[in-house]
């Protein structure tokens, strides 16, 4: 036996400095903010502003300014009748803008949506009027046609490698030509005021002749927010991750309730809530859930944020791109049906003019970034509120259409400038 002294396990370990400070547990900053109460939220709000995280703040401030100016110029602007008109006419272009939000989140563009919307109105008129097809079946086939057209664009972009700008520009020309061919020498086809067209029409309101309709919608919206937030709170609490306190959830619900019930009161003073707006809001809620709560939505943001990063994460980038353009085509078709329901006709003018520019402008003005990876579907609503308010306000003041274009263009430029400055600020602060 060797007399060599063996070292114990404790002797092998490095000496412990008893004077060294104990390890500090890392605390999620969101918890600290919420523990500080109102002061914490104000501090976080200031930090976000300095870091370029503006969210929907610019468009909300802009909307308040626009409404204030027009109300000063004409006291009829904020009247219930005018608010009903704004809420009805924003839905059609808003639907097209909603589909564009998905494309913009990828950092791409779809220039075909206006032509697809006009073609869809023509296809529906041919199915339902010329061939006497059931109007609901014609509606489904028309929407599926839009989805198919969008998928074709996505295939050429994702699989063949043709830039989305070129593919959809070609589609804009081609589908417009097909619409002209389908309408023929007459240049228009009438659509009967029945079924879905009646529901979407200007004379159709949620729960007609019942003042409770608008308040029911407001109650459902507030209840949905409250229940969804509490379920999310319970889920995050169980997982041991930061969650919104009940007081914050209650404040959010109260804020939504104030806006919703005031809107319901104003609209009820005239005719109520247009069905077109109700359907648009339902579409917004569904798309918001898809983007924020599903795997598909997370993949869309991932591809828009970094294509190479998405590939390395195992995401089928080509499939996501095709699906997104199919969604854009589908919503373009729905928007075309909304537009057709305003006049009950499919005409050569459908999908022409400034429809494309207004749909893109709505998504961008509402807060969706042209650079991809940032935005939400509610930007379609906020952007269309701004655009439709400008158009309606200038109409009340008997301003020329040229003035409308110039002001809308200036607002769009301002939105893009704010987005660019915001992204640059975030990069400077290391938050991009």
Automatic annotation (TrEMBL):
PANTHER family registered for this protein in UniProt: ABC TRANSPORTER PERMEASE PROTEIN YPHD-RELATED-RELATED, XYLOSE TRANSPORT SYSTEM PERMEASE PROTEIN XYLH
Membrane topology (UniProt): Multi-pass membrane protein
Protein's name in the database: Xylose transport system permease protein XylH
Lineage: Bacteria, Bacillati, Actinomycetota, Actinomycetes, Kitasatosporales
Species in which this protein is naturally found: Actinacidiphila alni
Keywords (A to Z) from UniProt: Cell inner membrane, Cell membrane, Membrane, Sugar transport, Transmembrane, Transmembrane helix, Transport
Residues annotated as transmembrane: 54-72, 84-106, 111-129, 135-158, 165-191, 211-228, 249-267, 273-291, 318-340, 346-365, 377-397, 403-421
GO MF terms, alphabetically ordered: transmembrane transporter activity
Subcellular location: Cell membrane
InterPro entries membership: ABC_transp_permease
């Amino acid at each position: 036996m060797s007399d060599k002294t063996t070292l114990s396990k404790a002797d092998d370990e490095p000496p412990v400095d008893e004077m060294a400070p104990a390890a500090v547990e890392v605390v999620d900053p969101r918890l600290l903010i919420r523990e500080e109460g109102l002061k914490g939220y104000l501090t976080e709000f200031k930090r976000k502003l300095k870091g370029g995280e503006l969210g929907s703040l610019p468009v909300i401030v802009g909307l308040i300014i626009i409404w204030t100016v027009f109300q000063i110029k004409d006291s009829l602007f904020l009247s219930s009748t005018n608010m009903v008109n704004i809420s009805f006419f924003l839905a059609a272009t808003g639907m097209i803008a909603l589909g564009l939000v998905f494309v913009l989140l990828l950092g791409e563009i779809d220039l075909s949506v206006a032509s697809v919307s006009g073609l869809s109105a023509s296809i529906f008129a041919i199915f339902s009027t010329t061939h006497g097809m059931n109007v609901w079946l014609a509606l489904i086939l028309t929407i599926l046609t839009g989805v198919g057209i969008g998928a074709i664009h996505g295939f050429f972009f994702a699989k063949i490698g043709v830039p989305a700008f070129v593919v959809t520009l070609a589609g804009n020309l081609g589908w417009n030509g097909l619409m002209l061919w389908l309408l023929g020498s007459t240049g228009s086809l009438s659509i009967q005021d029945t079924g879905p067209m009646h529901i979407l029409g200007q004379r159709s309101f949620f729960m007609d002749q019942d003042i409770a309709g608008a308040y029911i919608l407001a109650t459902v919206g507030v209840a949905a927010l409250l229940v969804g937030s509490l379920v999310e709170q319970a889920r995050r609490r169980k997982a041991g991750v930061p969650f919104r306190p009940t007081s914050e959830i209650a404040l959010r619900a109260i804020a939504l309730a104030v806006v919703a019930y005031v809107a319901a009161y104003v609209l009820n003073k005239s005719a109520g809530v247009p069905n077109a707006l109700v359907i648009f809001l339902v579409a917004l809620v569904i798309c918001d859930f898809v983007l924020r709560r599903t795997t598909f939505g997370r993949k869309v943001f991932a591809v828009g944020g970094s294509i190479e990063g998405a590939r390395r994460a195992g995401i089928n980038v080509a499939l996501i791109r095709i699906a997104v353009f199919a969604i854009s085509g589908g919503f373009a078709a729905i928007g075309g049906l909304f537009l057709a329901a305003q006049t009950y006709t499919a005409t050569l003018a459908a999908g022409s003019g400034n429809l494309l520019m207004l749909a893109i402008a709505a998504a961008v003005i509402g807060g969706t970034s042209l650079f991809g990876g940032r935005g939400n579907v509610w930007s379609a609503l906020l952007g269309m509120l701004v655009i439709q308010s400008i158009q309606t306000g200038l109409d009340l003041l008997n301003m020329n259409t040229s003035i409308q274009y110039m002001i809308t263009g200036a607002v769009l430029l301002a939105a893009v400038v704010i987005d660019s400055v915001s992204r640059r600020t975030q990069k400077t602060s290391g938050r991009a």
